[in-house]
């Protein structure tokens, strides 16, 4: 027990309790689960199905064996508990993999040569995650981290899967409802001076074992039609109401129900913050429930929470409800483990920002990649966002409008961008200098300092188009000595060159990771 407590104090978030530990199932796991409910506990040295049943009844979330117990491996297909069998030779790896193992433990790795053996064993099985066990000492851990081995990284992996959940939250409401004050009260724990939000604020809020990505979108009437651009992948919707604003509560109701009728929000849970409860004439939660027509939402998980953004009262109670209801809709981890491993080890996700002057062909490129066909486009006001699947990469591509009045808003999309696609109309000689200036202005932004740059020299099918070498010169690309960049000739309407560009983008982002 002392060793377990010391490990937790040292930051360990996943613990394996071996069966040979005295009282492992009856005492140790029970005590640790009560003391550290957010941690992940598994049982090791599981030698037979009876051991496995006892461990699962005690609350084990994963099982490990020094060898492969086929009865457990076959039985775990009906269980929510991950089983990690032990292997030592290529023959044992093949047997375990063919029987359905999603990850294996190489044990004892040191007797076979340690790092050298692990490299050789891993090579024929790149699809199968492997845990290196026994003989990993202090001072030798660098190899396992640099080499991509799972042994030392497994704790972090389990932490992401079991302890840390990520949730995408959209927070909207009429202007002056208190959304931005709420966001920064949650993020910073203090009140900040706010101005009406034009566009959005986005912050990651850490609470308990949840990482909330909260998008706070402006609520002025002219901005509300843009709310729908933020709906995709939203798991939880926070609708903030000014409880003191009786004159506009009907307007708030109409906006709320209009949103909830959108197909992209059909699975999102709804949390209503009845804000500004500190004001003397504020409507209470019951009155707001009635005025917003919440009881009519029979197919929706919803909850209303009285809040005061300035003091923080009620905010975390709302997050508690939100996290538990999103988690309950998401299903249990065990059943989804195969898919999670597939995403973590086979599928890479990359965030790409695509910009350029208006009429360069950005939206045509996006939907050619997404749908494989040409779509009729109009000038983009705001943005389009799509997920493009290619090979083992999932690209989230943000196509942002390029008109001169919109360009100052580009910076709002820079955060977490791994790859920048800059699209140039190769036939537009009159504005290539303007394109160069916009490109270099962006690249000087701190948030894009690590992003790789792909230039699409588009519209190469036109007879007077500049070739890639000419555009390279006119954009001053050779001056970018500290930047990974590449230029690709493309034709958006035929798709020529697009996937060659994605190949370069994916390999260069992966090499920087």
UniProtKB/TrEMBL annotation:
Keywords: ER-Golgi transport, Golgi apparatus, GTP-binding, Lipoprotein, Myristate, Nucleotide-binding, Protein transport, Transport
Subcellular location: Golgi apparatus
Gene3D superfamilies per the UniProt record, alphabetical: Aldolase class I, P-loop containing nucleotide triphosphate hydrolases
Domain of life from the UniProt record: Eukaryota
Main localization category: Golgi
Pfam families the UniProt entry points to: Aldolase, Arf
One of the protein's GO biological processes: vesicle-mediated transport
Recorded family membership: Belongs to the small GTPase superfamily. Arf family.
Name of the featured protein: Uncharacterized protein
Lineage of producing organism: Eukaryota, Viridiplantae, Streptophyta, Embryophyta, Tracheophyta
